[in-house]
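thoughts on my protein:
***
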Amino acid sequence: MITIKNLNKIYVCRKALSDIDIEIPRGEIVGLFGENGAGKTTLMKCILGFINYQGEILLDGEPITTKNIHKISFATSEHSFFPNLTATAHMEFYKEHFPAFSEKRFNGLMDFFELPKHTAIKRFSTGQKNQFEVILSLCQGADYILMDEPFAGNDVFNREDFYKVLLGILEPHETVLLSTHLIEEVSDFIGRAILIRKGKIVGDVSTDELEDQGKTLIEYIKEMYKYKADRVSKALDEISGEND
């Protein structure tokens, strides 16, 4: 379980995260939702120890250090691979550094995405690079897989097929924390939704609870964000009024 207690992150000019308290057990697929700048990426970077923060983050009851960080993997559209190496060279590197690396899963996903194994990653398209980033995160052997907008640059058919494959390959102990703006696309694949707004958790609900309430995920998010349905018409009226 990832346990986050009283997490705060302050940048020079603003508070990026405020009093975050979350528990993420093993075996969940969790969607992390929020507008741009809400704090999604900052939260993930705190978990990974990429940035300093105030509060406590525990991994299976222990602080996250070099001794247990291998239990977490990260897929980001900013990319974390070696661009001059081939996919095969990456596989050999990961096998050397991560004993639980799954070569079988790696080869299966490479074939699924139809990615070349002997071409330098820098020659991949943007979509292919993002696919490869996701593959590495899923094959590292981590118990907790963090994904920050991993599907940018991929067409809808590749994304939809990948969600299905993801559900099919995950082991019961593997947990995915997925940050994405593609809310409606992932609503059928996640088991829980965490909503963050202006650095604060404003919603945390299971999809089973939403089903019992007769709500869709997008309806729940609009409700918790206090979305105003007439904001567009009001803006258009104001803009049109200026031109009269």
Summary: Residues 126-139 form the longest helix (14 residues). The chain is about 35% helix and 25% strand. Strands lie at 2-10, 15-24, 29-33, 54-59, 62-63, 72-76, 144-148, 175-179, 192-197, 200-206.
